[in-house]
Amino acid sequence: MRGPQGGGRGPGGGRGPGGGQGRGPQGGRPGGPPGQRRDRGPEGGRPPRPPREGGERRPPRSFEERRERGPRPPREGGERRPPFRGDRRGPAPARREAYDFANKVLEGKARLSPPPPLPPLAPPPPGAKLADVNEIRSRIEKLVAGGEGLARYEGVPIFVPRSAPGDLVRARIVERKPDYGRAEIVEILEPGPDRRPDPVPELSRASICDLQHLDDETQTRLKVQAVRETLEHLAHIKIPEDVEILKGEPWGYRLRTQVHAAADPETGGMRVGYHARGTNDLVPVTRCPLLVPELEALLRELPAHLSPGAPPRIDLAVGDHGAVTVSPVIEGLPHGEVSTQVGDFTYSYDARCFFQGHRGLLPRLVEVTVGPWTGGAAVDLYSGVGLFSLPLSRLYEKVTAVESDPVSSRYARLNVRRNHAANVEVVGQVVESWVRKMPEGLDRVIVDPPRGGLSRDVRNALMDHPPRRLTYVSCHPAALARDLKTLQKAFRIESFVLIDLFPQTGHMEVLVQLAREEGAQTGTD
After folding, report:
1. Which of 93, 109, 125, 143 is deepest in the core (most CB within 10 A)?
2. Do 24 and 39 meet the contact criterion of CB atoms below 8 Å apart?
3. What element of type H or E holds 415?
4. Angle at 303 between CA 299 and CA 305, to 5 degrees
5. Helix axes 456-464 and 477-487, enclosed angle (nearest 10)
6. d(CA 138, CA 33)
7. What is the pLDDT of residues 377-391, one digit of tens each?
């Protein structure tokens, strides 16, 4: 209803005085008799229009009436209304000028100036040459950072995994980018001088063993060369020729691994292995000589403990004295804490935690990273379970370990307590959040970030509050080059150490020691 007494619009019907919901002073518009316009009357200053006879509206004229009436008579003087009026669409003079110019163009008295020429089309990117190419025949020039071989097709770089320098290969293009492409080997037409048969053929398709086709000494040499070229090309930083290179056993070294499980469609049982390179296809394995013997034995017996519906991803880790651990929990297999002795400290962790993977290189890695320097306050960013934090506690008065993973930070606190390192504080917080309040005047900062390197927030914090000494442990040379390019504005590079923590793969750790430049440029990048 629109009024207390019904749904009309007359008096008492909803919108007149006393009519309920309306817009007038008493809940409705000013009312009046039917047929009267509400904006006319004594209040509007004009007398109301008298109603037509009978109160009906005049019907519209028909077509015949309008035709008999004819066109409107011309205006006084015989002139038509000008096409431009001063009260519409902006200033009249500008419109008149445009109108006059248009008339002159139509009459041939003026000419339109030609439009400016379009800019030339940009040349197609180099990768466009690969648009209709499915296979190439090319020779591998060298290995690049990450372990892939570099070939070229009409000048376009093509990255080929599992290749060796000097190989002449027939390769299929599997990925096309504006500046480069990726390919996989179809046939090796001529093997390079450093190629050897795969020691573990069942791992040839898995990315865990990308460089097993190269001699062990050759792997290290080529990876060092690739790191040098990456830093020089991206950051214009030259690594000294006499740089220290750490390497250990090429097989049987890994303390940790992650395997995948899936049902076997033929037997109905379970298979365990690694994903094929670049896919989620499972490559089942019963052995992996990269692992320490305790883990390799566990790998062989793992399928017997799995049933359909088992976790698709399983983490394995080993400690001292043959202790192994599995995550998530699998009935019949050990789960929980293991410990490893490194130098004077014992570290506890489980399969979920990050821990450096080369058993034989752990003591030397800690030694060259921590070094002999001493001071008041030190910070270990991305500290994990405290691998570097505990040795720092012997050299600095106070150490802050920052780790975002809750499981790793819990083990870090446990390791601090068990090793009686009372001057170490463990902060379970995202590094990017903690550095916003990083204190001034730090004597030492160690960073061991993931593959992506330092985020912009962390780089800016180190530039705004540069410590006296910065140690950078990197597992990705390109990310390291990007970060050093910024950090060199406030720090001086003192030394490099290259560490082959992952033989048979393309990965190479790079350790950089930097010292603060007094009076150097600081601020955000």
Report:
1. 143
2. no
3. helix 406-418
4. 105
5. 30
6. 97
7. 999 999 999 999 999
Q: What percent of the chain has pLDDT over 70?
A: 83
pLDDT score of 185: 96
The one-letter code for the residue type at 370 is: V
10 Å CB burial of residue 455 (0-12, 13-18, 19+) is middle
| Confidence check: pLDDT of 361 > 90 | yes
Q: Are 211 and 187 in contact (CB under 8 A)?
A: no
CA 473 vs CA 247, 265, 497: distances in Å: 16, 44, 9
DSSP E strands, 44-154? 135-139, 142-143, 149-153
Q: Give the strand pairing for 142-143 and 156-160.
A: unpaired
d(CA 501, CA 369): 14
Q: Where does the pLDDT of residue 36 fall: very low under 50, low under 70, confident under 90, or very high at 90 and above?
A: very low
Mean predicted confidence (pLDDT) in 84-100: 67
Edge to edge, what strands does the sheet with 313-318 contain? Answer: 282-284, 270-275, 256-263, 313-318, 324-327
Q: What would the mean pLDDT of 48-60 be, rounded to a whole number?
A: 66
pLDDT at residue 510 in the model: 97
Q: Could you tell me if 383 and 424 are in contact, meaning their C-beta atoms sit under 8 angstroms apart?
A: no
Task: Output the CA–CA distances (angstroms, integers) from residue 171 to 141, 175, 352, in the order listed.
Answer: 14, 12, 38
Q: pTM surpassing 0.85?
A: no
CA angle 402, 315, 476 (to 5 degrees): 55
What's the one-letter identity of residue 257? T
Closest CA to 318 of 336, 343, 300: 336
Tell me how long the chain is: 525
- 202 burial (CB, 10 Å; 0-12 / 13-18 / 19+) is middle
pLDDT (average), residues 454-476: 96
**Please, are residues 220 and 246 in contact by the beta-carbon 8 Å criterion?**
no
Q: What share of the chain is helix, strand, coil (3-state, %, to 5)?
A: 25, 25, 50
Distance, in Å, from the CA atom of 488 to the CA atom of 249, rounded to the nearest integer, reads 34
